[in-house]
Amino acid sequence: MLKAQVHTAAELLTILSARELKNGQVVFAGVGIPLLAATLAQRLNCPSLTILFEGGVIGALIEPGKLPPSTNDQRCTMRANMVLGSAEVLLLLQRGYVDVGFMGGAQIDQYGNLNSSLIGDPARPKTRLPGTGGGNDIASLTQMIVAMKHEKRRFVEHVDFITSPGFLRGGTTRHDSGLVTGGMHRVVSDLAVFDFDEKDRRMRVIALNPGVTREQVQDNTGFKLKFADDLGITGPPTDQELKELRELDPERLYIS
User: Fold this and answer.
1) Banded pLDDT at 245 (limits 50, 70, 90)
2) Which letter, b or e, does each residue of 119-136 get, where b requires 16 or more Cβ atoms within 10 Å of its Cβ?
3) Got the DSSP string for 37-99?
4) Closest alpha carbon to 56 in 8, 89, 17, 15
5) Three-class SS of residue 201?
6) Residue 181 above 70 pLDDT?
């Protein structure tokens, strides 16, 4: 293991997210940190990782310094295996060909429901956000990884709007509502890594990031957290991880 350098919170978030992916998986990645993390994983130890984009690109290979600003950007097609229409690529989700969905959001609640639609009362929102795109399909049909900056206004007891379903109201409510596959697998923040309790499906801290305390995570969360009995500590970024990441995003569009 190489000695770690000084890093930003965004770099830590990206690297920890990349570590959650496994070689051979098919991952539906959103732009920003999810795409950066998937590409980093592909370069480091997951050469057979297949990246899908909502715009229809299958098997994207992102060039360093040329991160696409959207999933419809033509840079996504560089050396891709195939380019389909949006409807066709979403059908791959329904057919069970996608292992992991990888997104961010404005809010997440204790059951893993994501909001990327609006802030405030849905009838009179204070702020309108980009919306669902394929986020509802992805969260409904895959095992989800979510990468988010950890703030109390983002980690809330109940999201203002469910754009992408997690475990809904906990327990068996996701399955009872007809979503019989998928669910929230991991949440990665700049403070900790989380899974979801198998019984009540509430968010649970499974590892703290270096130098972070239990109290710090709880103080920055808008609901009561669970902590795993065997609570771990994540390994700091290595020189190699930081080198590869900074080559991918030399202009620091996402990792500043």
Assistant:
1) very high
2) beeeeeeeeebeebbbbb
3) HHHHHHHHT-TT-EEE-TTSEES--PPTT---SSTT-GGGGTT-SEE--HHHHHHHHHTT---
4) 89
5) coil
6) yes
Query: Is the CB of residue 208 less than 8 Å from the CB of residue 217?
Result: yes
Contacts of 86 (CB under 8 A, 6+ apart): 54, 55, 56, 134
Q: Tens of pLDDT along 191-233?
A: 999 999 999 999 999 999 999 999 999 999 999 999 999 999 9
The set of catalytic residues is 54
| Structure-block tokens of residue 75 | 């840079």
For residue 75, give the amino acid letter: R
The Cα 192–Cα 151 span in angstroms is 12
Return the CATH number of the domain spanning residue range 9-248: 3.40.1080.10
What gap in Å lies between CA 56 and CA 191, rounded to an integer? 33
**DSSP label at 154?**
T
